[in-house]
Amino acid sequence: MDATEPRPTFVPTSYPGILHHYTKDLTAFEFDSPVLRSSDGGKPNTLLFIAGLGDNLLTVPYVSDLVRTGWSVVQVSISSTANGWGTGTLTRDAKELALCISYFKIQLSRPKVVLLGHSTGCQDIMHYLCRLEVSQQAHGQLDGAILQAPVSDREALCAMMGKETYERSWKHAQRLIKSGRGGEIMPAQITKEVFEAPCSAFRWYSLTSPNMDGEDDFFSSDISEETLEGTFGGIVPAETPLLVVYSGGDEFVPAAVDKEGLVNRWVRVCVKKGVNIDVGNSGVVGKATHNFAGCERGVFEDFLGRVGRFLKGVEGGRLTSSKILNDMVRV
Predict the structure, then answer these.
(1) Are 62 and 46 a contacting pair, CB within 8 Å?
(2) Ordered DSSP codes for 155-187
(3) Degrees, nearest 5: CA angle 52-56-57
(4) DSSP, res 87
(5) Nearest partner of 280 among 288, 292, 289, 271, judged by Cα
(6) DSSP H helix total and E strand total for the chain
(7) Verdict on whether the full-model pTM lies above 0.85
(8) Which residues contact 25 (CB under 8 A, 6 or more apart)?
């Protein structure tokens, strides 16, 4: 949902680093950091950051600060970056992420590679982990995944557009899809109030359908337990370490949503199905905005601490005690 986020006052700046050309048409930017300069043979553990709808390199304000975790930080560009998302799919995104993971893990021999998704970047990660064919994944090469601000686009758009406009929009997209015109661009008068990018009927329906059949609909608060068992509970491989961090003051989450309860549902499903979720560090960061813009420093430090502890667990192969897991199952 980042295309409509208010941006802080812009100050021109520059960042040193390495630009990686990981496929013919795709690049990734690795931030300069002490760990990158001092690592043995240039092979540090690597955190791959995937931004949300409408975001581009450096538009999410906290990314460069992630180097404080002691991991090298890379912002990945895929075909959906910036305005490309509107005519893309999660399957395309996930396949491109697999290529990036393989580039860093195989070609550059990075010891550990973890994905961190922001907003719709979380949908890319979930699609990669629970829907992409194993043969299409960078199989066995991903060492963990972090979801930051995994919000429901459907619920956010309904609140932003108003129920009448929202209903008209997804029904129009549905009609186009049923008539074999899913690739057709939605009318600007429907989408321009929330997104600048042209958006296909298929992608709009994926984001907005209330029928629980949208490809993007992983995080809505009304999703059934059975469906969650096929998404959060269907992560492959199940031993992939997972961290979920929700923003307590997320401006794109309707006030009626019980954020703590929602995250606890996801965690319980993961535990029930044997998914390796970090129970101790997953949760809601109080007063955090969607991308931490405008937050007090302590709020971001809470998030950074959770990420740092999770990554330490990935390094050492330990995340959460069995006692906590058993307590979660009994709830």
Answers:
(1) no
(2) HHHHHHH-HHHHHHHHHHHHHHHHTT-TTSBPP
(3) 120
(4) G
(5) 271
(6) 11, 8
(7) yes
(8) 79
Tokens encoding 137: 């994944």
- Whole-angstrom CA distances from 15 to 12, 18, 288, 302, 309 are 11, 10, 25, 25, 26
Report the pLDDT averaged over residues 113-132. Answer: 98
CB contact burial 133-157 (16+ within 10 A = b; e otherwise): eeeebbeeebbbbbbbbbbbbbbbb
Kindly report the CATH class assigned to 17-151+218-328. Answer: alpha beta
Residue ranges of domains in the chain: 17-151+218-328, 156-208
**Closest by alpha carbon to 13, among 68, 59, 53?**
59
Dihedral angle of Cα 165, 168, 174, 177, to the nearest 10 degrees? -90
Query: How many angstroms separate the CA atoms of 267 and 275, rounded?
Result: 9
Integer Cα distance of 246 and 240 in angstroms: 19
> With contact defined as beta carbons under 8 Å apart, do 122 and 150 qualify?
yes
pLDDT in tens, 81-97: 999 999 999 999 999 99
| Dihedral sign (CA 77, 82, 88, 94) | positive
Q: Which helix (H) or strand (E) holds 267?
A: helix 259-272
pLDDT the model gives residue 54: 94
216-227 pLDDT, tens digit per residue, is 999 999 999 999
Residues 54 and 34: their CA atoms lie apart, in Å, by: 30
Q: Report the percent of the chain where pLDDT is more than 70.
A: 93
C-alpha radius of gyration, the chain, whole number: 19
Q: Which residues contact 289 (CB under 8 A, 6 or more apart)?
A: 247, 249, 250, 251, 295
| Per-residue pLDDT tens over the stretch 186-209 | 999 999 889 989 999 999 999 999
Q: What is the Cα–Cα distance from 279 to 319, expressed in whole angstroms?
A: 8
